[in-house]
Write a structure and sequence with these properties.
Helix content is about 55%, strand content about 5%. The protein is globular, with a radius of gyration of 20 Å. The longest helix is centred in the C-terminal third of the chain and has 31 residues, at about 370-400. It has a single domain (about 5-400), classed as Orthogonal Bundle (ADP-ribosylglycohydrolase fold), CATH 1.10.4080. A hairpin with a 6-residue loop joins strand 2 and strand 3. It has helices at about 5-15, 35, 40-60, 65-75, 110-125, 135-145, 155-165, 170-175, 190-195, 200-210, 225-240, 245-255, 260-275, 280-285, 295-310, 315-320, 330-345, 350-360, 370-400, and strands at about 80-85, 85-90, 95-100, 105. By secondary structure, the protein is mainly alpha-helical. The termini are close together.
Length: about 400
């Protein structure tokens, strides 16, 4: 008896539906005009650009309370310059001092988290599709200039680099990295969601593998890898044609164990009840008073709450998260990146996009001068490659069924 393989074909067709034509993005660097108009490309470009914008805008006020931000800036709603002072501190009991070099950051320059994002993107572009932790480790060794540690990449990244250079297997490196449970794992992971567009479960599995470069499971209270999986899954879901704000949030929550899920849902409850995003600020301040600002679960909670209150609109999501206080660049990366993936490049203020695109092309410290547009084109092609593999697999399965 012949079995109808419609369900498998429908899954593939649903993923490929993300490439429907919509609007005009502008002259492509490498893509055809037809590809540059697709909804899938628009959304990948939106995610990539919004992530860079959010990272840069939030970096200026990182570590400040919402009161300090309001007193100094009023409302941060534009990309600003900043100067980083030189500093030296003991990172651990053993090993060299942690050094930060004095340097100027013009508007649009990003920081260490987005450097990891760019390294992950580079690995995907080199592979032309999904990557393993070995692929990611090879990219770290090939593309990082160790003389540039202390500018954008910091010494938590140097520890990872040195361990890889010494030959430690990449899946063991996270056991010895700095600040377990922090958001550093997740700041590199949205490209994994993009290459796995419309496949949240696969994006989550890849994230759990790749995240071991920075973190490890099994440590009490450390849910960094689960948060990493949540952000990757939410990104993949946001690129689905029929995605909504609620479906993106649910894709993230599905990756969390009960304890961190309750914590994130608390923030979402605040967001649903609040009349204005500003009402979130004292709630988050009280909830996390005295705790490290970069805890992964807090960042996910704050990012998703801002994403929800902004109804998935990139401009508002970024501004809310940047002005929320504490780890502002990370919360904005989550909120803004997901919103950019859901709404596309046209929903982002063009002056913001232009600023980050111009800055990275001459950035003296970054691991890659690839613009957000160029990164999006490479990720789009890698995603299409993965979809073609799926199509080939479906064809093979169908042929086996037809021959029965």
């Amino acid at each position: 008896m012949r079995t109808n393989p419609v369900s498998v074909s429908m899954v593939l067709a649903f993923a490929l539906a993300a490439t429907i034509t919509y609007g005009h993005v502008g002259p492509p660097c490498f893509l055809s005009k037809e590809d540059a108009k697709t909804e899938l490309f628009r959304r990948i470009y939106g995610c990539e650009a919004a992530g860079a914008i959010a990272n840069s805008m939030g970096d200026v006020v990182e570590g400040m309370s919402w009161q300090e931000i309001e007193k100094r800036y009023g409302l941060v709603d534009k990309l600003l310059a900043q100067d980083k002072k030189a500093s030296r501190s003991r990172g651990r009991r053993f090993g060299p001092d942690w050094v930060v070099h004095a340097h100027h950051r013009p508007p649009g320059m990003t920081e260490d988290g987005f450097e990891r994002h760019r390294l992950c993107t580079s690995a995907i572009l080199k592979k032309g599709g999904r990557i393993t932790i070995d692929d990611l480790a090879e990219t770290w060794l090939a593309e990082i200039d160790p003389n540039k540690f202390g500018y954008l990449l910091r010494y938590q990244d140097k520890i990872i680099y040195d361990l890889l250079k010494a030959g430690l297997p990449p899946w063991d490196v996270g056991r010895y990295a700095s600040w377990p449970g922090f958001i550093g794992t997740s700041k590199m992971i949205m490209p994994v969601g993009m290459v796995n567009a419309c496949r949240p479960d696969q994006a989550a599995r890849d994230a759990l593998d790749l995240g071991r470069l920075k973190d490890a499971q099994g440590q009490p209270g450390n849910y960094a890898l689960e948060v990493c999986a949540a952000i990757a899954a939410a990104t993949a879901e946001a690129l689905r044609p029929e995605a909504t704000v609620e479906s993106v949030i649910e894709a993230a929550l599905e990756q969390l164990p009960p304890e961190p899920r309750r914590e994130v849902e608390q923030g979402l409850t605040w967001a649903r009840k609040a009349k204005d995003w500003k009402e979130l600020r004292p709630l988050y301040e009280k909830r996390y008073e005295g705790k490290p600002i970069s805890n992964a679960v807090e960042v996910l909670s704050g990012g998703l709450a801002c994403f929800l209150m902004a109804n998935g609109q990139p401009r508002e999501a970024i501004i809310y998260a940047v002005n929320l206080g504490r780890d502002t660049d990370c919360k904005a990366y989550v909120a803004g990146g997901l919103a950019g993936a859901l709404r596309g490049i046209e929903a982002i203020p063009p002056e913001w996009v232009e600023t980050v695109e111009k800055e990275v092309a001459s950035d003296p410290y970054t691991v890659s001068r690839r613009t957000a547009r160029q990164a999006a084109e490479g990720l789009y092609r890698a995603c299409i490659n993965e979809m073609r593999k799926m199509k080939d697999a479906v064809s093979e399965v169908e042929s086996m069924i037809d021959n029965q």
